[in-house]
Amino acid sequence: MTTSALRPAVPLLVLIIAGCIIAAVGNGIRSSFGLFTLPMTGDLGLTREGWGMAMAIQNLAWGIAQPFAGAWADRVGTGRTIAVGLAVYAIGVLAMAFSPDTGWLTLTAGVIAGVGIAVSSFSVVMVAFGRAVPMEKRSLIFGVATAASSFGQFAFAPISQGFINAFGWQSALVYLGVALLLVIPLSYALRGRTENPVGHADLPFMEALSRAWGHGSYRLLVIGFFVCGFHLAFINVHMPAYLVQCGLSPEVGSWTIAVIGLFNIAGSLLAGYLGGRLPKQMMLATIYFLRAVAIGLFLLFPVTEVTAYTFAAAMGLLWLSTVPLTAGLVTLFFGARYMGMLYGVAFLSHQIGSFVGVWLGGYVYDQTGSYSLVWYLGIVLGLASAAVHIPINERSASSFALKTA
Hints:
This protein is mainly alpha-helical and 405 residues long. The chain contains 16 helices and no strands.
């Protein structure tokens, strides 16, 4: 059955372009934070665990704020939500440039930037996309939004490294903060909110969450998304430093992150396209299994530029390809009305995984001088997540959207 969509406040193409630019800039800047690991820890005298904790808090703050950001976007509109989020995100990045120690870095780069990322993230952008297109096209459009985020990662990795090399890490962060402020006007194109379908209850936050959590497939989806966050955050934050430890240059680290973003453009678009034609849960199981295989093969061979870029390309194809499929399942289960909140809850699980991946990477390195244990854990978690997704039923939760009396 074809599901109708609400007419957007601006032409659909304008809405999609504006949303994609916001997603690209926001995710591109966030993805470049790993490039600041070595210069900031060196200049400020931070331990790797201290730096990792600040980045872990950022991911956790992002995850905790995401359901509330999604609920707010559902209620008051995506345009206002994203504008506020970009402003808070910019404040966090600008303040990060002048943070003298771990405590301040945890507050600025961790809490403030993390909340700003949540409120302006591509998850909120996808809420605007979700209400503007019919159900059968949502998976593809979610793939487009995810691909735009990946392009931001590809573009901002070498840009940020260039800023660091030319102006120093402090000025580089100032420039990135200004870039966030410059895209705020684009949020106007995403204004509007998702209306409740006729004959369905307008459920309060906790009641909607309670009904959704009673759906077994949704619980499995939320649990499995933890692993996605673990993989992405660990690799994104610690991969550049890991490659330097293996004897490669910082530029190789930045280009590795860029290659991940480049190949994820293809991976996200392909996942979005196939998500409307193949069982989404089986595609997710396959993605997590292939991630485990890619990590295992990476550890088997000596680390060189060739193996680093090959691994980055493989992981890029699998990187955020989980997002359009996961978001597609959430909207299939519960419809577009509560997508912002309920995808946000799933994303909280993702960000708890991110917190563990980033913090554990720094802790294990400080204790052992190596990241090996975390790499091996990534393989085990990938296999476990593949198994968790197989039992998911790809059908709507008929008991969720109850009609009003």
